[in-house]
Specification:
single chain; about 150 residues; mainly alpha; Arc Repressor Mutant, subunit A; 7 helices; about 60% helix; elongated; Homeodomain-like_sf; HTH_Psq; HTH CENPB-type domain-containing protein; DNA-binding; nucleus
């Protein structure tokens, strides 16, 4: 497999504009901007179909299970719960996300721990927080652990 070349979105947009204006051959333009010829041709074809030379790059991989707008709503819900002093754990987040998914898609597909870890990486605002001593969450944790001991 050949090595991947790196180029910026602005270089790609400029190269596509140059090809569409027929400033030079696509081969020379690809060399000038450091973009693979086949990649440039694909972007030019897409720009001709869309009618815009600045085509946003597509995300590779499978489609997200939950739409980004729903994920943002889920992030807001988690932040609101934490702001109210109620800690939300992995199980609660997965249960809530699965309930939303069942409502959207109408099937009983379930999200897994893998989805949860990727979700947390996509939203660094929700980093794992340590419970501070003296907070309501810490007191609830202390009470529950005392009652479970025999």
């Amino acid at each position: 497999m050949p090595p991947k070349t790196t180029y910026s979105v602005t270089d790609m947009a400029s190269a596509v504009k140059d090809v569409l204006k027929k400033a030079d051959t696509s081969l020379n333009i690809a060399k000038r901007y450091g973009i693979p010829t086949r990649t440039l041709r694909a972007h030019v074809k897409q720009a001709k179909n869309v009618g815009d030379s600045a085509v946003p790059p597509k995300r590779m991989g499978p489609r997200p299970t939950l739409p980004m707008s729903i994920e943002h709503d889920l992030v807001t819900w988690i932040a609101d719960m934490e702001r109210d002093g109620r800690a939300v754990g992995q199980t609660q987040i997965l249960n809530k996300a699965n309930a939303i998914l069942a409502r959207i898609q109408g099937k009983s597909a379930s999200l897994t721990k893998g989805w949860f870890y990727r979700f947390m990486n996509r939203h660094p605002v929700l980093s794992r927080k340590q419970v501070r001593v003296g907070t309501a969450t810490a007191r609830r944790g202390a009470i529950s652990s005392r009652h479970t001991q025999r």
